[in-house]
Design goal:
The protein has about 475 residues and is α+β, with helices and mostly antiparallel strands. The chain has 16 helices and 23 strands.
């Protein structure tokens, strides 16, 4: 399965800290009955079909959370107000495939707002920092630590957003990655808008205060263009393959395993691109391969199997089993194995698979990070289990033990608010669940980035893997 990412082009729990702004009021307001119907629709889908609902949090705690949310729906609200009441349940359930996304109308509302926060904010080592300044205050220092916005301390601000974002188990890598990638979007969804923003920041031991005006998107884009800076947190735009001639090494970048993304956004065919890359590797007799799956949110498990078959010289197991919720009253129990039963969906990589006769020979290196989720974590997990690659980067967002997933529809709309929800309907096991501590998959070699790296676009992980390859020659 693939997590529903909210990739908003402008880079943009919890009850809003501030009162409703004038712009918030233009969103449709829903009655208490409509809000409760939407909530019950989502809650019932989770209870009837979500296999991981009680895996990390006891049923009693989940039930208590649901009851608290429902009791808070005691007056008419617009969609974003409703979203802020419901979203904290996501952080409690702790399944990365269980997500909430504002409706297309609400996203358009945010994008068109004239009072956007005109900053790009980064997140690293538990601190927020100013990565880009598109405000009319040129004295703001790029790289300085952001201490508060409108009086809200940075740690409370971070907690309010992260607690409402999905994650696999206790691993908040994805939430941190998203915060570092599109802070502005989550800030406005969670905390609304303001005519002006009081910004507190520190630099070299000194504290500063300033007030900046809310700004519309065209102005932000114009100022971004005028500054001519490197792209912030850029990811590859499509599947690509290149050769580092001096190292006799291939570089295969795969930003997604999602069929729709690859076909419609990339205008590519996954198998054709992989076949072409492998042909080039054989043609040039390359003995080293770097596979870059950073920021890869996952997708089709069959694509993972297809790639693995090129990289193995022996048969392998991708998934150890697939489970769904039982169609009986037992589904309400806390025990995972009593609540679920085995099922068979071969395209999810269940069973043993043969490697290809013309497989890649030599050393493989896999780049991973906090944006590597779902199917991309599956790929890295299998490569690590069989010791077929050296993993470099940071801990993945996805679990190396168990993933949620979907069958046909990865998401549905709530009847009234049209919020997009993505409750998983199956799960795959990749390792002994008794060892699952809720963590992500760790690399063999950790790469620590600095604020300067992120601001400048310096690819330290790629630098590390190239240095490693050179050291082995």
């Amino acid at each position: 399965g693939k997590i529903v990412y909210i990739w908003i082009g402008f880079l943009l729990t919890c009850t809003a800290t501030w009162g409703q702004s004038e712009s918030d009021s233009v969103l449709p307001v829903f009655s208490v009955e409509e809000l409760r119907e939407d909530f019950q629709y989502w809650k019932c889908r989770l209870e009837r079909k979500h296999p991981l609902l009680y895996l990390y949090t006891p049923k009693s705690s989940i039930d208590s959370c649901f009851a608290s949310i429902e009791s808070s729906l005691d007056h008419p609200m617009n969609e974003l107000e409703f979203y802020r009441r419901v979203a904290p349940a996501i952080g409690l359930i702790k399944d990365g495939h269980n997500n909430l996304m504002p409706s297309s109308q609400a996203i358009r509302h945010i994008v068109a707002h004239k009072q956007l926060l005109p900053l790009v904010v980064g997140y690293l080592n538990d601190s927020l920092f100013i990565a880009r300044n598109y405000s009319d205050d040129s004295t703001l220092i790029i790289g300085s630590t952001l201490t508060h916005i409108n009086g809200m301390p940075h740690d409370n601000l971070v907690k309010s957003i992260i607690n409402a974002l999905p994650r696999d188990g206790e691993n908040v890598q994805f939430a941190r990655y998203e915060l570092n990638d599109i802070f502005r979007f989550y800030f406005h969804v969670t905390h609304g808008f303001s005519d002006s923003y009081q910004i507190g920041y520190s630099h070299q031991g000194k504290s500063f205060e300033t007030t900046i005006q809310g700004t519309d998107l065209p102005t932000i884009r114009s100022r971004r263009h005028a500054q001519k800076l490197n792209t912030w947190n850029s990811i590859p735009q499509k599947i690509s393959f290149s050769i580092i001639d001096s190292l006799k090494t291939g570089l295969l970048s795969i930003p997604s395993f999602d069929t729709k993304t690859i076909r419609k956004q990339f205008d590519q065919r996954f198998k054709s691109e992989i076949n072409a890359a492998m042909k080039e590797i054989r043609k040039h007799e390359l003995d080293k391969l770097i596979v870059d799956i950073r920021a890869n949110g996952g997708g089709n498990p069959a694509y993972v199997r297809y790639l693995l078959q090129y990289l193995f010289d022996e048969p392998f197991v991708q998934s150890h089993g697939c489970r769904v919720v039982r169609k009986s009253k037992k589904r309400g129990e806390d025990d995972f194995y009593k609540r679920t039963r085995k099922t068979w969906y071969p395209w999810y990589g269940i069973g043993k698979f043969r490697n290809r006769r013309k497989h890649v020979k030599g050393s493989t290196y896999v780049l991973i990070d906090g944006g590597s989720f779902s199917a991309s974590t599956t790929f890295a997990t299998v490569m690590k289990q069989y010791e077929k690659a050296t993993l470099i980067g940071s801990t993945t967002a996805g679990s190396p033990y168990i993933h949620g997933g979907y069958l046909v529809k990865p998401s549905v709309l709530l009847p009234h608010t049209k919020i997009r929800v993505s409750p998983a309907v199956l799960c795959n096991l990749y390792d002994d669940l008794s060892s699952n501590d809720g963590s992500g998959l760790d690399p063999h070699i950790f790469v620590n980035y600095t604020r300067e790296d992120l601001i400048s676009g310096h690819d330290r992980a790629m630098e590390v893997v190239i240095g490693l390859i050179r050291s082995t020659e």
